[in-house]
Amino acid sequence: MSCQETQDLIHGYFDGELDLVRSLEMERHLRDCQACSQAHQNYQALRSAITTGSLYFKSPVGLQRRIQSSMRKAIKAETRRRMWSWRWLSAGAALAVLALLTWSFLLLLTRPSANDLLTQEVISGHVRSLMATHLTDVSSSDQHTVKPWFNGRLDFSPPVKDLTDRGFPLVGGRLDYLSNRPVAALVYRRQQHFINLFICPATSDPDGEKRTVTRQGYHLIHWTAEGMTYWAVSDLNVGELQEFVRILQNQTAPPPPN
Amino acid sequence: MQDSNQLARFEQAVLPHLDAAYNLARWLTRNDHDAEDVVQEAYLRAFKFFGGFHGGDSRAWLLTIVRNTCYTWLQQNRRRELAVDLEEELQLVESNAPSPEATLLQSADNQMLRQALEELPEEFREVVILRELEGLSYKEIADLAELPLGTVMSRLARARKRLAARLGLSAAPGGLK
To answer: Are A40 and A158 within one domain?
Structure first.
């Protein structure tokens, strides 16, 4: 080992960080080389001067106490901060619940009513009957053919009248399905316009008021009479549809005793 | 409750190393008051990060934080001392030095050694402090200061050479030729 190498490695040796082989080489060199040996001794002297020379700064009295109290203060501040964020969180949660409640309330308010849903169903039934070339199950202008056809297909017997002489010829009848039950659908014609008349037993408001609704360009007239509820729907103008309903109401009214 | 448990564990593991923390901070800041501030801040930081400390050498862990806090503090509060060209100064000192004996050191003024150490640039000063006063191994110093092992050794070598020269010791082999 040369003096140059020694100069680099002497600190590793001196600090006990050299591997065994190189430590032995270093020892051999130090034994043989006066200058390097002197340097090594100098470093040892330096070390002892540093370690015994009261160069170590002991922490001042009271520092530990100050540190401890500042840590406790920091913890308190942190706890307070966390408590605040917890409060904000609860406030936020309360706000969210309120918003949800408001929203569901509004939803309830704007929800379509049962009547609206039924109206939509009636229109859909009408449109579907014209769309699917399934206007009638039984095609006849004879009320005595159409009315019995419903026997055994429905648990009620719908009143069927041919109104050909009043300008609304009966086209036929068909089974349909409204508001979760099978209903009778009678089909009438006025020129090129078809009228679907849905009939089923009334469940509520036995003699309900006649209502006229217009939706998607279709007119609906709804009424209840004699324990039956009726929906007349057509693209016919309102006036003519109302006339149809009026005729029908007169026809189905119980015949005056004579 | 959890906080007070944590605090108790922290105090048990880290408070005993207060002297080591203060010694390093004092040598790096070279001022009593600044050292206290830095140590106090370092302890708060250490407590904050204590959750991430999973056993091991708590002194080395604390010293890493103290060291980082010191450097942050020095950057914020002082213009970092210009690194003196060590080699150049070394030459100067060496050429002025006669040929003193190692025995002279025994009587060397402690004050002189202290001053010589304080005059070392921080990166040299810290390795001497960690090695000679804290007795850390090269590996521990390398981890703490995020340096390669070789750099630890070369910094120690240069620092010692300079200190020896300041104390009138001919440290380098062949330095007297």
So the answer is: no
Q: How confident is the model at residue B79 (pLDDT cuts 50, 70, 90)?
A: low
Q: What is the dihedral of CA B159, B162, B166, B167, to 10 degrees?
A: 70
CB contacts under 8 A, A 45-64 vs B, are 45-47, 49-51, 53-60, 63-64
- A140 and A167 share a domain? yes
- Domain check: are A105 and A120 in the same one? no
More confident site: B56 or B59:
B59
Q: Which amino acid is at A197?
A: L
Q: What is the chain B residue with the closest CA to A79?
A: B3
CB-CB contact of A11 with A4 (8 Å): no
Complex-level ipTM:
0.77
Domain shared by A121 and A245, yes or no: yes
pLDDT of residue B147: 92
Q: Which of residues 78-107 of A touch B (CB under 8 A)?
A: 78-79
Its pTM stands at 0.57
Range B29-51 average pLDDT: 92
Q: What is the mean pLDDT of residues A127-140?
A: 83
Residue among A59, B29, B138 nearest B128 (CA) = B138
Same domain, A94 and A146: no
